[in-house]
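cron nightly-structures :: item 1 of 1
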Amino acid sequence: NKKLTAIIINTTEDVDITLDLFFKNFSVAKGEIYRSSKIENCIRVGSYEAGNQLTMPANSVVTLSLSVEEK
């Protein structure tokens, strides 16, 4: 499997957001979720499974380290 890193930024001051992720030309198997914020510095906060939603707290940066296959 190949690796894909995605960095997603939530710049809202007080709104958590929930995302349905789609990666064109890639089939995502699974991965790890890391989060940075005012109180966290690239902390592993969980695992990502293809098809699951991703919820991001306000003022945070999420880094996904994903295992993928090209379509």
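cron nightly-structures :: done
The mean pLDDT is 93.
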